[in-house]
Specification:
This protein is an alpha+beta fold. Helices cover about 45% and strands about 20% of the residues. The protein has seven helices and four strands. The chain has helices at about 1-10, 25-30, 60-65, 80-85, 90-105, 120-130, 145-154, and strands at about 15-20, 35-40, 45-50, 70-75. The chain has a four-stranded antiparallel sheet with strand order 2-3-1-4. The longest helix has 16 residues, at about 90-105.
C-alpha cells in the first residue's frame, strides 16, 4: 500500500465532484476510456472520486457525454507542489547542489574501523593500511582497492 501511495504522490492526484446527469453512465464511460478512479463516494446529488492528475483531462469527454459537471476539489502531489514553486529557482538549484555535494563527498573515506582482529595490534594494521594509501580523508579511487585484496590474501 505504501508503494501505491508513493507513486500517487509522485504522479499527483485530483479529487473531484461530479454533479448532474447520469453518474453511473459517467463511471462506465470513464472506465471504457481507461481512466482509473478510486475512493469513489456517492452522495445524494453528486459523486466524488479521485483520479491521477494526468487523467483528469481525459474525464472531460465522458463527463460531457453523461451530462456531468466536473469540479476539482483538491489537487495533491508533486506536480502541483512543483508548479507552485516553479518561479523559485533557488529551491531546485539547492537540491541539485546538495545532491552533487553528497555525491562528491561519498567518494572519500571518513572512518576506518577494525573489527574481528585478535592476533595483531590495531595500530600495526592501521600503519599497514596507511602504507597502502588508505586512511581517513583519502579518496576511495586513490586507495587502490586491488592492493587491499592482496592484503587479505596474506
Amino acid at each position: 500500500m505504501f508503494t501505491v501511495r508513493l507513486i500517487r504522490g509522485i504522479r499527483g492526484s485530483v479529487r473531484f465532484r461530479a454533479e448532474g446527469g447520469f453518474p453511473e453512465r459517467f463511471l462506465n464511460l470513464a472506465a471504457r476510456a481507461g481512466v482509473n478512479l478510486w475512493a469513489i463516494e456517492r452522495g445524494e446529488t453528486d459523486l466524488t472520486a479521485t483520479v491521477a492528475a494526468g487523467d483528469y483531462r481525459r474525464l472531460q469527454e465522458p463527463a460531457r457525454r453523461a451530462q456531468i459537471d466536473l469540479q476539482a476539489l483538491e489537487r495533491t502531489g508533486a506536480p502541483f507542489v512543483l508548479r507552485r514553486y516553479r518561479k523559485r529557482l533557488g529551491i531546485p538549484l539547492g537540491i541539485l547542489l546538495c545532491l552533487a555535494l553528497i555525491g562528491y563527498l561519498s567518494g572519500f573515506i571518513w572512518t576506518v574501523e577494525l573489527s574481528g582482529n585478535r592476533t595483531l595490534p590495531a595500530e600495526t594494521l592501521l600503519e599497514t593500511l596507511r602504507a597502502y594509501g588508505l586512511g581517513v580523508g583519502c579518496r576511495k579511487q586513490a586507495t587502490g582497492l586491488n592492493q587491499l585484496d592482496e592484503l587479505e590474501q596474506r
